[in-house]
Structure formats: C-alpha cells, structure tokens
Records
---
Amino acid sequence: MSSLVRHSLALSRRNLRKSLASPGQVLDTALMPVVLSVIFIYAFGGAIAGNSADYRQYLMPGIMALNHTIVSRTAGIALNTDFSSGVMDRYRSMPVARSAVLIGRVSADSVRLLISQLAVFAFALLIGFRADNGLLPTLAAFGLLLLYGIALCWVNAFIGLAARSIDTVQSVSTIAMLPLQFGSSVFVAPNTMPDWLRVFVEHNPMTLVVDASRNLMIGGPVAASAQGALLWIAGLIAVFLPLSVWRYRART
Amino acid sequence: MTPAIRIENLAKNFGSTAAIRGVSLEVPAGRVLGLLGPNGAGKTTLVRMVSTLIRPDSGRILVHGHDVVREAARVRPLIGLTGQYASVDEDISGWENLYLIARLFNLRGRKARARADEMLERFSLTEAGKRPVGGYSGGMRRRLDLAASLTGDPRVLVLDEPTTGLDPHSRNSLWAEVNRLAGQGTTVLLTTQYMEEAEALADALVVIDSGRVIASGSTAELRARLGGQMLRIQPEEPGDLARICQVLVAAGHTEAAVMADEGRIQLPLTGGGSQLTAVVRTLGEADIPLASLDTHIPSLDEVFLKLTGPAAREPVAARSAA
C-alpha cells in the first residue's frame, strides 16, 4: 500500500472517530430527515398530493437527497475547524501528502453519507415507503445519491477552506444548500410552479438527482434525469475538487 | 559540520506589513536556541517558516542542509513542531491522537499501537490515555502535544511558546523534558516571551523585535553587554538631581544620567571599584545630602524590557547596527 493510501485511511479513521464522539453531528444527521419527513408527509402531504400515502412515495427519495445536503456540510466545517485548532499545522509540518488530508476528509464523509442514507431509507420503510421498482434499480438509486453526496462534500470542502471563520462557513454553506433543498422537486412537483421558477427547478442538480432516484425506486422514466444528474455530479467534482486543493495549498 | 538550522537574510511580509526583515541566525546541531521577543515580534512567523508551513519572501532556511521550500519533503521528517496552542484533537482519546500520528509516520498495526502506548507512558499519560482529551488539564494537553511532536523522533524540535498559560508545576516538568531531550542531542528552537524560560533552557539567545535581530549571544554575554553594574544615587531633595549630574560629569563620569521619573541619577560602572571610590569622593566634596546610594545588576527581564521597549527601540537598533 502506498503511503498516500495509508495516510488517507488513518486520517479517515480519525475523522470518523471524531464524528462518533460528537453527539451534535450524529443527531443532526439522524434527526433532521425524520422530523422533516414527518412534518411534510402528515402535515402538508394531504394539501400537496391529496393524501399522505401518495405523498410519502413521492417525498422519501427526496428526503434521502436532502439529508446529503445536511451531512455533507460537515466536510467544510471540519476542515475549517482543523485549521483554526492548529491540528492542520501539525499535519502540514509532517511528511504527509497534502492530498491525504482532503481524501481522508471526503472518504470519512462518504462513509457518513452511506450510513445516514441507509438510516433514512430504513426510516422510510418503517413509515410505509415501498421501493416497488425492484432491488437493482433501488441500489442504482443508492449509488447515484451517494455520488451526489460526495459531490456536495467537495462543494462544502471548498467553502470550508475558502472562508476564514467558522461562522462564515456555516452561513455560506446554509445559503448554498437552500436553493438545492427548496428550489427543487424534493417537496413539490415543478409543474405546479410559475414558469420562471420552473426553469430553475428543472435544471437544478437536486431535481435531476431526486427525479432519477425516485423513479429508480418507485418506477418512471429515468434516462434523461439520470444523465443530467451524472453530468452535474461530474461537473461539481471537476470544479470543486481542484478549487479545494488550491485553497488548501494556499491557506496559511 | 552542517548546522541543524541555518537562516540567511530571511524576510516575510503579510500584505504591507513586514513581519520579518532580514533575519540571519544559526543553530548548531544538538544545541538549544531561545528566540526571545515580545508579542508581534515575528517569532511565530519565523517558526512557521522553519516548519515549512509558510514560505519566505526572500532569503532562505536550511534544516540539516535542506532548503525548507525546495526540499520541504526532506525537511518534514527531520522536524517536530509544537505550536502555540496545543494542537491535539479534543474529542478523541489521548491514545487515539498518538496512534494517528504514529500511523502518519508510517508505523503499522502493532508497531503504531506500541508507539502510542510508549509515548503515553513517557509523558505520564497512561492513565488518562483512554479518556477524551477535552477533559485534560492544560498541562496534560501540552504534554500530549509534545508527545505527538516527538512520535516521529525528530532531530529538530520546534517549540513555539511552549509554556504560555501553564501553571509553575507543569512548566517545570515541561522544562525538564526539554532539557532531557537536549541532553540526548535533539536540537531545539524555542520561542518565548520569558527571560527566565530562555535562561532555563537555552544555550544561546536571539532577541528579535519588529522582525529584526536586536541582540544575540549567551545569556551571560547579553547581560554583560547590555546591563553591567549600575550605580544609583538618590538625593534627599529631588531639586538636587541636576546639580549632582553636573558635578559627576565635570569630574569625568560623563555617562551619568538623570532618571527624573525615578528621582535618581544612574551611572554605569565601567571602571570597577576605583571608579566607585572616585564617585563617592566627588559626591563627598560636593556635600549634597543623599537619601540612598546603591549598585544594581539588572535582571535579564530588565535587559529584555530595555531591548524591546518602545522607547528603547530606535537607539538599540542603532547600537546593534553599529
């Protein structure tokens, strides 16, 4: 094994240990999707879709993607904290590849994304969601959602490395995630929206990922949305990974 | 022999602020150099450049002959850095902290675990090792930080204000550890604001202020050069200060100076005992009533304040340039 792989693994383990030790992070990722799904299905579901059962089928894949917009924020927050606590000074004064720190961060976050994705799916099953379209398409949806979460990690990593203070990181990442969360097809179908908003919503990466995942799980056309989703994911990583590396190197 | 650290004409600016302006110094292998200066003098900037964390604007730094910019990858295995704030992970255990560092130094499996155990033991942290660092005292954190810096067996240890904020007991045990390391041949570059710390640990001192070296040498040399024995004369009547000074200058003691704030005359005794006798005779002949007459050797803290105080800044810089 090359030292880059070993260092990345060691740092990934450290990041996961820290996540486990921080009740805030665990609660944030487990509780938020649960609360949101309960409110939307039972309070708004009837108004939006006529009845809660139909709305549940519509909403739950979107909640899985929404969950990733929350879980991925940790990438930026943790990198920023590591710089301000001085821990990063230690790593950077040691014979450790620069990229190992970033790889260790995003790989740990990928594990967190996967675990929380499974947890949200289990909760969805518990309240009656059914992935009727079969196992393989559902697994494909899992893969797509995970890739999307990883792309969001790189966006957040860049925010965490570019902003000086942790307060700035928190507010910028909240604002950056808002249009994904609410300007998309997660809660409401775009065809109910005014034209100007619908154009935005239909091209939103969140909409494409959610539509593709939803249809993979409960049935429906997939090709166009999946293609758009993969293009977005590739594009986000192609832009934000190098930007993060650049900020990481330039940061003092 | 190649020095452990060699710094040549180093300069670093942050925007329009000059943090380091032309510093040169050398630390021979196995020696402890104390870098002394007030807040904002440039100590941390210098240490960060030696540790490969930031790049110099001009000049260069060699660590055991390797350039910190061009050969950073060869410098990093040689140095261990303990920064100004204990840079350890609070929410995981002390053992996990050290295990991670051991893994990053390419120790595997059992060897990494053994190294973490060994370092905990050496710094008396075995008992606390399984607990999260968040519950450690300041002294324990510092020890863990130092343990982490030493996990890779560095030849050069860089300590940035290692005892700031520590209680006297923790400070003493940290000093003992640094002295032990120095005894084993580890080169140490240490920054501090405290003369006492520099004297306890360092073989040689470099005093920096506003990014420049304003004095250097051993503690004894610095004290001798900058603060020899001083005669202090206090008249009963402050109104007599000027007259005493005139009398002394007229008698050839031209360095006599009125310290109006303190209500006394100060005269450096460069001529030893015979000068003292001559001064006493002159004062006797002038027949001015005196409240006190004493000699004083400045403490190193006074030397330090004198060197770095805002009032002293310009003349001292001129003196060291001369």
---
Amino acid sequence: MTTAGSGRFRVMFKAAVKKEWKEAIRRYRLLVIIGVFLIIGVLSPVSAKMLPKMMEMVASQSKEQGFEFSYNKEPTVNDALIQYNKNLGLLPILIVIMGMGLVAEEKIKGTAETILTKPISRTSLLLAKFTVFLFILVMGVITGGVVCLFYTLILLGKVDIVSFAFLNVLLLFYFIPFVAVILFLSVVIKSMAGAAAAGIGAYFSLMLMGGMPYVGKYSPQGIYSVTSKIAVGMPEPAWIIPFISSVCLTIMLLVIAAAIFEKQEI
Amino acid sequence: MREKAKMETVIRCEGLSKHYKDINALQDLDLEIKEDLIVGFLGVNGAGKTTTIKLLNNLIKPTAGKATICGTPVFNNPMKVKSMVGYLSQEPAFYKWMTGREFLTFVGEVFRIEKITLKEKVARLLEDMELSDAADKKIRGYSTGMKQRLGIAQSLINDPKVLFLDEPMSSLDPLGRVSVMNIIKGLKGKTTVFMSSHILTDIERVCDEVAIIDKGKLIIHDTLSVLKEKYISPAIFVECKEPLHSLADALGKEDYVFSVDKEGMRGTKDRSLKITFTDYAKGETMLPKRIVESGLTLVKYEILTPTLEDVFLRLIHDNSGKREV
C-alpha cells in the first residue's frame, strides 16, 4: 500500500470504527457484553462462597426426607476461579448472538448498499467491526476480571494476581476466534439467524475438537483447557500452541472473510 | 448551455453486460452521457435500470464490457470513481439509530471532508433538504419523504460530478414527489444527474435527455424534444355522445392508425377515444370522415401534444414487435 493509500485506509478505518463504536453503545451491544462479564465476575466468587451453605440447606432438607449426605468442603479461591472460568466458557454463545448481524444485517437492510458506494473499502469496514468487538471484549474481560478479583479477595482470600491476569488474557484469546468466526459467517451467510445457527454449530464443533485426542491440544479450544488448569492452580500449563492456533484461526478467517466480502455483489 | 458536442462525456459504457445464469439483465449497453445534464433512464420493471446503476456504482461486477466515469475506469479504479459520484438507491437505507446530522457527518468523514467544512456542509444540506428541524432526531422517526431527502443529501455531500438516483420518487406521495423533483431540478447545470424511473411525467418535467432500456437493451437515447418529434406524432382525442366501441374496432383495422386507447378518458367511460397514428396526415383527414360515416354526435375533438408516455409506449411496443389496439 502506498503512503497515500495507507493514509486513505486510516481515514476510512477511523470513520468506520467511530460508527461501529457509536452503534455498539446505542444498540446496547456494549452494555449487554460488559453486563454479562460483570455478572459473571460477581457471581463466580459469591456462588463459590455460598456453595457450602447452599449444600448444607439441601442436606438438611434431604435428611427430613430420609436421604442423608454431607458437604464439608471449605470454599477456596480456586473454587471461585473454576466457577469464573466455567461461566466464561459459555461466552462464545453470547459473542455469536451479538455478532450475527455485523455484516448480514447491513446487507439485508440495505445500509451496505448506501455505504459501499462511498470511498470506503470493504476490508476496512470489516476490520472496524472486528476491532470494536475486540475492544468491547477487552473491556469486558477487564471488568469481569477486576470484579471477580475484588470479590474473591473479600470473600475467599488472597489471589495469585499474575496467574489470574494470565488466565484472563488467555480467556480473551479463547473468545477472539469466535468474533472472527461470526464475522466470517455474517459475510458468507445471507441471513442473521443462519449466521447465528452456524456460529453456534461452530462453537460446538470447536468444543468437540478441543476434546479430541492429539488434535485437541492444537486447536484454539485448547486454550480453554489451559485456563481450566490455571483455575485449579496447576503451574505452567502448555499454552503456546493453542494460543498460536487461536491467533492463526482468527487471522485466517478475517483474511478469507475480507476476500469474500470484497468480491460479493450487493 | 454549451452545445452537446462540446460538452465533456461523464459516463461512458461500452458493451456493458450483466448475465445471471439464464437471465440477461443487461446486454451490450453502449451509452454516453454528457456533463451537467439531467438524464432520465426509463424502462419497465426488470428492464435493467437498477443493474446498470449498480454496475456503475461498483455494487455488482459486469459479465463483459467497460465503463468510465469522468474518464476513470469504473471497474479498475473503484475508489476514485466512488469519490466522484453520488448514489441514492431505490429504497435508501440508513442507520436508524443515528440522527440525520450524524449520518451525513459519517458519510462526509468517509469522503475525508475536513471537519469545519463538513459541519457547514451538513448544516447547508439539511437546510436545503428542509430537514434542519429534524436534524438531531433519530432517523427511525423520519417519514418516507424525509428519508428520501436525507438520501439525496448524503448523495450530494461530496459535490459529486455524477449523481445516480435509482427511482428517487417511486415511494413518495404527491407532495413528496414535488419536493424531491424540485431538488433535482435545482441540480440542473451543477452536476450530471442520471436518474432511473418509471414515472414518466416526472422524467418529462425534469430531464434534458432520456435513455430507454428494455429487456436489458438500450432502445434509444436522445433529447426529449427529438424523441417526441422523431417517434411520435400528435394524438387525437375524440368524445361523442354515443358509445364508441364500433368506431374503435373500425379504426383499429386502418393502416394509418397506430393505437386506439379505449380506456375511458376524463370520466367519459366508453364515449371517448385517444387515437395515435402511423401516418398522422392521413389520420387527421380520415378520422373526421369516419366519425361522420358512423353517425356519431361529436362532443369534443382535440389534438393532443405527444407525451413521453406515448414515446415510451411506442418504443417499448416496437421493441417487442407488438401493436396494442
């Protein structure tokens, strides 16, 4: 790209990012995603702390019905982190739902036709959508992480901040490929519902892939296994390969989506 | 206005074609549009009007042929072309969560218009389009007419050399149509307007030239006056006291008659006819004779000035090899 070309791309990208950001705020995408992270951040340590008391209540009710069991485990920091990791493991479904219309909606409603006749490249439009979604996720992870850390410290005791921060960074890289997946599907599939259905299908496929022997540890889903190990306090799990495959999958999907979008007839 | 020959060509299509599987949406379109004219692009639904406009705006790719806008190849240098044109789609869509001002500002930013200039330009366009009062309201609350005017405003933000309007008045009520038509009239001499429509009266009121397309092929492109002169003679309106079924049938068989419109005109039901001729001179002589021979009582006999509708129908019928009686 020439200097003038890159300058033009920067201007187009900036305008598109500004628009996407405004849209995320006005259409509550930002609020919903941050809200979900916030709730998970609060609920994970709280539910870990409350679990023994809840189990005690269940046990006493069961005893009255002639069925006895006991739950004596004291809640730990790891319980909160396991809960946090488990709850966030479902976040890709939210990503798919929130992102299903990113491109498909613009094509269906006709805004793509209005905008793409202006000197804005389709790639910059796509990258702007990805960047803003990514930024929202970063904000969400920070919000959820800080809140979870705060409540865990208050309710359960000292947390290894470095490994908790590392867990959050890895979780972010677990989410990112799903943004690329839904963006890609939103380009390729003409309906929003179709993109969402395919996105959820992709989520379960990646989940299954993550559980497969040999292949699993090389798949982006492998990151989730790593974060699960960090949550239970395992030292230095092998994170590099799934991390790289997550980044590669994201880049690959974005490149293909941009190439397809550039050639698509509107 | 400068003579046509001296004017610069702003739109040039050479052998432009677009095929979809079994459908030839556009076939070998050769077209030259000179600068600063308002050109009406006519055709029935599915004739290829929108396909042509979408091709020239890089929304779809051609199967064959080439096109230039202000000398720049449309398909090789899309960004440069986009920076020179304005486009309003048939049903303009906007981000409804934005206000009118925000939308125009966003479009202006894409065109890299400087902040201060853009602010002034947006305010001026909103005023010109009578949208100043609604400028800071969400677009979701705009009426169809307001959206259409906002659509025109966004298409003018870059002071385009060529403005493409795809059926700009099709979804509007009469008041909205007049308003949009006045806006288009106001663009005369400032930019080249290439406007598709099937509302012929609107085209007739604002356009300098007309291009007619049918079944993906350009049938004719000329000035309105030349088209009227060349392709159609005046029509004659006849109203009698009696029903005119038999006269209509008899005239339909005459070789100098092109068409006999039996639709009740001006509320006269079956007592009036509009007759167009293949040989007007003969028709003008023969028609009164036929009326007298039929023993009809003439109430009104009027020579009608040909309209674009007459030209359009004639050319479309000629192209389909049909003759309507």
